[in-house]
């Protein structure tokens, strides 16, 4: 199915949202709960599956939706369609502070691999599938990189990341990254989880026991503040924290 052609603009800096412009009968699909606002004339419906294969039977849709449950996402995707006259707008926001990355799937060969919680919304026709990392190390040690999502199609998709986004182009190179900081990568990139140095470095280095290894030629997207780090930092300023300074302000908020 050819993806719908959608226009968009990204609004904001540190906490961004994407506003999608829909012509009559155009549709955008999004994660449940991502919608921020929509104009009169836009209807929405929760559906099992991404709608990329209209002829799919019930069990095919159930299998696709079930795979989303494994990735930790909702069983349903919400389809927003312009049923009015003229152009209409619907906006989506990420579930935590960060950056929204617009992806033109056609320019990336039709496919991109992203972390399981990175997808925000996309033009109807985009296929969203679960992808297991086949590397043994990823399965045992790289929880954040073992279950991935594959976005396929020829239209626009939007993914979100925590903090600042860094785009790197690898030219037959290797890049080692904190496992939670990988947002997405082209399918030409080989992804694996490897041990982070010797035993002393693993225990006392503060960088975790394992690192993600990205190898090959293509683009990768990294995030400076994955959600697990943000939660960890906020929890460290909880009611029982003894940190001074800015921690005192956060302590008051938690009380």
Describe this structure in words.
Strands 9, 11, 12, 14, 15, 16 and 17 form a seven-stranded antiparallel beta sheet that branches. A six-stranded antiparallel beta sheet has the order 5-6-3-10-13-8, with no helix packed on it. The protein has a four-stranded antiparallel beta sheet with strand order 1-2-7-4, with no helix packed on it. It has a single domain, classed as Double-stranded beta-helix. The C terminus is likely disordered. The chain is built from six helices and 17 strands. The chain is globular, with a radius of gyration of 20 Å. By secondary structure, it is α+β, with helices and mostly antiparallel strands.
What is the molecular shape?
A: globular
As a whole number of angstroms, the C-alpha radius of gyration is 20 Å
End-to-end span in angstroms? 53 Å
pLDDT below 50 for ≥5 consecutive residues: which ranges? 138-143, 243-255
Task: Estimate the mean pLDDT confidence.
Answer: 79
- Classified by CATH, the class is Alpha Beta
Strand fraction band? Answer: 35-45%
Compute the number of structural domains.
Answer: 1
- What is the CATH T-level topology? Double-stranded beta-helix
Total of helices: 6
> Strand count, sense and closure of the main sheet?
7 strands, antiparallel
């Amino acid at each position: 199915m050819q993806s719908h052609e959608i226009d968009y603009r990204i609004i904001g800096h540190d906490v961004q949202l994407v506003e999608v412009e829909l012509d009559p009968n155009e549709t955008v699909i999004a994660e449940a709960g991502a919608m921020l606002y929509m104009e009169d004339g836009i209807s929405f419906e929760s559906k099992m599956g991404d709608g990329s294969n209209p002829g799919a039977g019930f069990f095919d849709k159930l299998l696709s939706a079930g795979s989303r449950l494994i990735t930790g996402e909702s069983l349903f995707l919400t389809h927003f369609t312009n049923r009015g006259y003229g152009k209409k707008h619907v906006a989506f926001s990420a579930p935590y502070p960060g950056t929204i990355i617009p992806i033109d799937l056609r320019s990336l060969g039709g496919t991109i691999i992203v972390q399981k919680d990175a997808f925000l919304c996309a033009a109807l026709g985009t296929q969203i599938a679960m992808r297991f990392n086949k590397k043994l190390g990823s399965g045992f040690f790289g929880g954040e990189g073992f279950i991935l999502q594959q976005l396929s199609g020829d239209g626009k998709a939007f993914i979100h990341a925590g903090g600042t986004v860094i785009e790197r182009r690898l030219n037959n190179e290797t890049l080692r990254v904190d496992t939670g900081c990988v947002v997405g990568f082209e399918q030409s990139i080989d992804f694996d989880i490897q041990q982070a140095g010797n035993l002393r470095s693993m225990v006392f280095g503060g960088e975790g026991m394992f690192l993600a290894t990205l190898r090959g030629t293509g683009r990768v997207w990294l995030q400076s503040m994955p959600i697990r780090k943000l939660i960890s930092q906020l929890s460290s300023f909880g009611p029982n924290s003894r940190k001074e300074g800015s921690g005192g302000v956060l302590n008051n908020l938690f009380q």
